[in-house]
Amino acid sequence: MNAHTINLAREWAWSFFKEDTTGHDGWHMERVAANARYIAEKEEADALHCELAAWLHDIADDKFYMREGEGMERVEGWLQSQGFQNSETNALLHSIERVSFKAGTNRPPETLEAKVVQDADRLDALGAIGVARTFMYAGSHRHKMYDPVKESKDAIEHFYEKLLQLKNLMHTETAKRSANERHQFMEQFLEQFYREWN
Ligand code: ADP
Ligand code: NI
Fold first, then answer.
1. How far lies 14's CA from each of 29, 77, 161, 180, in Å?
2. Candidates 64, 134, 166, 170: which one to mutate for ligand 1, based on the most atoms within 8 Å of Cβ?
């Protein structure tokens, strides 16, 4: 694997997510790739593996296709066309497949590299970026910002359903440190939000 392959994956991700306004644009991929590289270097994981998997992680995600498994098949075909050995392709597919949360039903990552990639994606759901993405997502799904009487779905409930739990689900020490900082910021954000609301 080399920088050329990474560049091709980067170009693919940018063109794939050209139109997205739900929090999965090319800049999400840029941030996750940068997080993955950073965490991998600190944790002595294979940084090229982690970065490549980060670029491809959302292209493989079922939520962007009509048919289940289509995204993974496309990514697998692409990896094969890049001339990876089967063992390397399988390791990358493992990292890519285990990234997603799927309401807590997906199996956990087993390799250090897969753990790094999942941590990298989860960090981008936290902190100021996480707050921003949550409201983008809610807006694009026609949810409310906040509904204190809980008659309809709102963005604020996502903090309790998922985001405030993520710091305890990080695998690597490096990601835990960033997650703690971003977690504190979200707590502060919620406090201030309720203060202004009331
Ligand atoms: P990813 O593919 O990066 O793991 P998701 O597709 O699960 O992310 O979600 C994209 C972004 O939208 C994330 O920042 C996530 O926290 C946020 N999000 C997901 N589900 C909801 C929801 N029900 N309400 C508000 N925000 C959400
Ligand atoms: Ni993602």
1. 8, 18, 30, 30
2. 134
